[in-house]
Amino acid sequence: LQGNRTHLGRFELVNVGEAASLREKNGIKFMANEASTDARDLLKRAIALHRDGDLTLSERLYLQVLEAEPEQTDALQLLGVIAAQMGNTTLAIERVNRSLAINPNQPGALNNLGNMLVEEQRYEEAIDCYERAIHFDATNAQAYFHLAHVYLSVDRHLDAVSSYTRSTELEPDNASHWNALGSALEKVGRLDDAVE
């Protein structure tokens, strides 16, 4: 758990409370009825199982959430994460895009989609996803970190330094961010800064 986010490898899982807050901020709410309460409880259970690595059961529960609420964006995008974890990047991208078509203001989903696009070597599209994630949540250190990685892949070294710097500001105790910043500084000839 880093900040209010939970990460499984390179993927970000939503915090149900945080997701609900973002939805309300963007004018999207769960319908207040018994079915939505059941769906919210199922979603919480599915996320907990997903965090524990039970992809099969969490997938089944996400699908049940969608039976109750077909446009439940968290369940859709997390089904995408499961597809990516199981090696089906095409299906993963399709599911996350369906979620983003319903609500484009999902920084975690955009970050996850960026990671999936990187797997497909679709770097410019990934950059767009990370930049949009940062637009909606400027405190998302992982989006800055992943964006910097892609910048390095497309030889935008100064942009990588800038993004790594921001990720270290947001997560100063994260050694991998500092190591990556040092490597990027070295690539742009700022070896003295990298040693610090």
Description:
A hairpin with a 2-residue loop joins strand 1 and strand 2 (11-13). Strands 1-2 form a two-stranded antiparallel sheet. The protein has helices spanning 16-25, 34-51, 55-68, 73-85, 89-102, 107-119, 123-136, 141-153, 157-170, 175-187, 191-195; strands at residues 6-8, 11-13. By secondary structure, the protein is mainly alpha-helical. Helix 2 runs antiparallel to helix 3 (55-68) and helix 9 packs antiparallel against helix 10 (175-187).
Keywords:
about 200 residues; 2 strands; about 70% helix; elongated; disordered N terminus
List the SSEs and their pairings:
Elements: E1 6-8, E2 11-13, H1 16-25, H2 34-51, H3 55-68, H4 73-85, H5 89-102, H6 107-119, H7 123-136, H8 141-153, H9 157-170, H10 175-187, H11 191-195
Antiparallel strand pairs: 1-2
Helix pairs in contact: 2-3, 3-4, 4-5, 5-6, 6-7, 6-8, 7-8, 8-9, 9-10
